[in-house]
Design a protein that fits this description.
The protein is α+β, with helices and mostly antiparallel strands. Helices cover 33% and strands 22% of the residues. Strand 2, helix 2 and strand 3 form a beta-alpha-beta unit.
Length: 83
Amino acid sequence: MPEFDVMVYGSRAGGASKAHHYLDLVVMSDKPLAAARLEKLEAAFKAADLPFRVETICWASTGPSYRKEMKKTGVLIQTALKK
């Protein structure tokens, strides 16, 4: 999803992760993304056979309290490509 900023958050972003912890990613979209698009992204991560699970969510689909929690540990790992 090169057209969006992407942030990692949670234990893997904060450096306190264990081997079984997920890699939590949030796509910084102003509008909710189609579920099929997120499912395709998750399928690609699963096919990559990483040694951990990757969870992806859309920023626009989260509420204020969850956004606050994500910002506590969030680290920007991708800046959107501008056309």
